[in-house]
Amino acid sequence: MNYKRLFIALMAVLTSSICQAQTNSPIKEDFQPSTFNQPGQAYPQVNSQGYARFKIKALKADSIRVSLGLGGRGGTKLTKDAEGYFTGTTEGPMDEGFHYYHLTVDGGVFNDPGTGNFYGSTRWESGIEIPAHDKDFYAMKDVPHGNVQQILFPSKSTNTPGRRAFVYTPPGYEKGNTRYPVLYLQHGWGEDETAWSVQGHANLIMDNLIADGKAKPFIIVMTYGLTNNVRPGAGGPRTPGGLTKMILENGFQTVLVDELIPYVDSHFRTYGDKAHRAMAGLSMGGMETHVITLAKPEVFDYYGLLSGGVYTPSELGKIKPKLVFMSCGSKENPAGVNSAAVELKSAGYNTVAYISEGTAHEFLTWRRSLKELAPLLFK
Amino acid sequence: MNYKRLFIALMAVLTSSICQAQTNSPIKEDFQPSTFNQPGQAYPQVNSQGYARFKIKALKADSIRVSLGLGGRGGTKLTKDAEGYFTGTTEGPMDEGFHYYHLTVDGGVFNDPGTGNFYGSTRWESGIEIPAHDKDFYAMKDVPHGNVQQILFPSKSTNTPGRRAFVYTPPGYEKGNTRYPVLYLQHGWGEDETAWSVQGHANLIMDNLIADGKAKPFIIVMTYGLTNNVRPGAGGPRTPGGLTKMILENGFQTVLVDELIPYVDSHFRTYGDKAHRAMAGLSMGGMETHVITLAKPEVFDYYGLLSGGVYTPSELGKIKPKLVFMSCGSKENPAGVNSAAVELKSAGYNTVAYISEGTAHEFLTWRRSLKELAPLLFK
């Protein structure tokens, strides 16, 4: 296993900023509230070109800055109007999809009171959605909907009587005695087990794929990828030592393989074997997938790395998973993913690479990656 | 049905402030982070006497005020130290249990970045937990845990292809073919369907009662008590017109009785009859329970009003529910609840009144009310 290579891949994605294309066309005044706004809140807004506009009431504040904006320029500075509202529009259009952000109000970090809260960067952040041209695949539609269940499973290794995971059960799960395959799907660094079903819309993506007959119904299990032994934010993946520590020493493999999987297999109608079990993850969750699938080849038969590095033929060796799926955004390191796929295919591994067009290290990349991965699983 | 009486009861609870006992003993320096803090955050803190302490970093701010504190005095003003942190401690101890709050930073309303977000007052608010002397009944213990499932049910009346509800299924639900009774449990004004299972700990309360053999296992369904027809915050229960509008005209009865109940009965293993169906709610949810149980006596057989008014013999008339449960905090209107219970009992209705000692119109009152109500249901 090549940790240096993994680390370099991680650095590449972490340093990819939210890119904005410069544009010469005038800003269209067709702004609408972001779909993630709190009930009744008019701001933040987005327009059809992808610009975001903010409006914050703080009558006596001197300065408010939004962390979203052109990379390296410190985001978007708001200006105060005569009524004491701070307003401002991003200098250019944002990438399509979901973006985390926060406000800096007179030197303090706060969330935008207009929008919801999403766990990212080891804190509850604000979030905004720039409507994507292909947003239909994660839209709430008039189709049968699966459930997302919060389970509390005992975890002796972390001394937790009820450790939280979310379990997507597909429409129809509640009827009959059918057994289902399971995908274990991990969030990224700084996020938690809520990410995939809230900002990721994993449940709606699956509901729509299943309704269209494009994916087999399966269960998805999402849990927190760190343990009590490593405090979130401590070290982090920004140093090779931190990366190794988090993935190998933090005990997540024990929680996942020895505690969560047996709980899921005894509390849900699963097959409970390798042939019906997949693991995938985004960013740090992809690196966890990488490490755990190689360490426990008897547990999973389908591997997915979403913006989370690549496999090499030498590290796979005699392990022959039914599928190796690798993806990233076109603004990340597509050449790395594509060349790794070529190498794996020529070595005889069933490999699929996917590049999300026009996106960086953000959730639209991963929503699309799940949409591409799901139809390939358990066939 | 006496709307004037309902309205007066509502006013009484809405105007009851968060009371704090004055104390002459010195503040104990045994402050600990609140249990609802974000991961790794040291503040806000609470001490063993119930004082709350706040610390916010905002180097260039002029003024920060916390909305929690002595009623009528505008909360707790923080003072800036030499390093740019704003700190402060409540003037007196807070009531035990959960409190919503927010910050006013230089005239703008923001949440405390140290703690989690809880939907109340029609916005995501900050929250703090003052440990209660009886907190054991809602603690996470090493007992079998039920699940809390997010369901998305079709609602034609509100033109929503997937309207959200949360469904608590008790431990063991996943095994066998047993059918279960159902409690429909409503949140209060300004809250939403997340309230009972997050700040209310309804799932942990049930897990513990069931493990102790004190309550029969049953399903709890929690959904949003307003509809698209009434914008949250519009009117509100602060005027009699607003109250009537919200409860009678907003269409929630249609969503609950004609859409949600049939969905639950067809997707979960319920009995599906009146004898195995209860409705209860807190504050506005109690008033919804009041109105809907009287309008649809064929649907529910157990009624619970938690800080949500009372029933009278004249309005019940020939309706003979198996149980009428009414509760409130001792700092609300206990005399009203107790005298209504006396009246109902002497008229032959099976009635139980419960007063939560030392609490006001807040969640510890309702957590305790659920603990008292649950063992009385479906026996």
UniProtKB/TrEMBL annotation, chains A, B:
<dbReference type="InterPro" id="IPR050583">
    <property type="entry name" value="Mycobacterial_A85_antigen"/>
</dbReference>
<dbReference type="InterPro" id="IPR000801">
    <property type="entry name" value="Esterase-like"/>
</dbReference>
<keyword id="KW-0732">Signal</keyword>
<feature type="signal peptide">
    <location>
        <begin position="1"/>
        <end position="21"/>
    </location>
</feature>
<dbReference type="InterPro" id="IPR029058">
    <property type="entry name" value="AB_hydrolase_fold"/>
</dbReference>
<dbReference type="GO" id="GO:0016747">
    <property type="term" value="F:acyltransferase activity, transferring groups other than amino-acyl groups"/>
</dbReference>
<protein>
    <submittedName>
        <fullName>Enterochelin esterase-like enzyme</fullName>
    </submittedName>
</protein>
<dbReference type="Pfam" id="PF00756">
    <property type="entry name" value="Esterase"/>
</dbReference>
